[in-house]
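thought: fold this chain, then report.
action: predict
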Amino acid sequence: MAQNAAALRPLLPLAERMSLYPGAALIAAPAQPRQAVQGLAIMAGFSTLAERSAEKLDRQEAELAANQKDLNAHQEQLDALRATQKAQRDASAHQTKIAAAVQTKAESAAERAHAAVAAATAQAADLQDAIARIEQAEASAQARLDAEARELQRRHEVARANHVRAQAAALARAAGPGPSQGHGGAPVAGSVAVSWGQSTEAGPASGMTYTTAGGASVHAPCAGRVDFAGDFRSFGQMLILDCGRRYRFVLSGLGNLAAQSGQSIGKGATLGAMPASGGRLFVQLRAGSRSVDPRPFL
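observation:
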């Protein structure tokens, strides 16, 4: 279109003069009649050419305007799409932030529950009382999480309610699937000094006692969660491992602990080590409040 306009530009003054003063333009210089007729023909052809060129320019301008209109429409669509994508990104970021906050709150609730269990155990008068306090503290924590989930559901905060329910379920699952029978092996290398049910001065033994070498590693007899790890009364360094299904292993007499309260561990994981001078490891398996024979599970 620019080339066409450039080609017509030099002819515009002549065209204007002939359109305004055709007679004067033709008689400005003497000419033969034949030459005058030729001049008229040229002028007629030039007029037709100019008209066609003008029409072509008009079409090109119309096409350009249509293209510009389409471009503007596409730009509006693109702007709208970008705005939608930004809104989606902002909404996703907001949801992620909410989920992270809920998860942090739920994890904090679980940590508080583990801390409450450990604190209740440390205050127990004896092992029987410790197990009873553990079960009571865990039941209270579970009830609090369930109540919080129901309240969130009542307020139609479904996402947060689901997160809290998931945390409550995880708190229950973390205890483990229960002890498995056979092929586990003793939790420590050594010899059995006192077997379960063996007669002692205090009556039938409620667990098993191993005599070990100094620094021997102590391993988890089941997968589960550590309810308590620390010094307890006359038991010394003691660890209570929740295997699930209300089964718990109690191990005491360790020299140092490699696990802590609230920690989830796998079967066979290192729980600690015996004193450097050697010692005795007491192992008890409890089903609820009762001590049971641990041998089938070792």
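thought: worth noting. Residues 98-173 form one domain.
final: tokens above.
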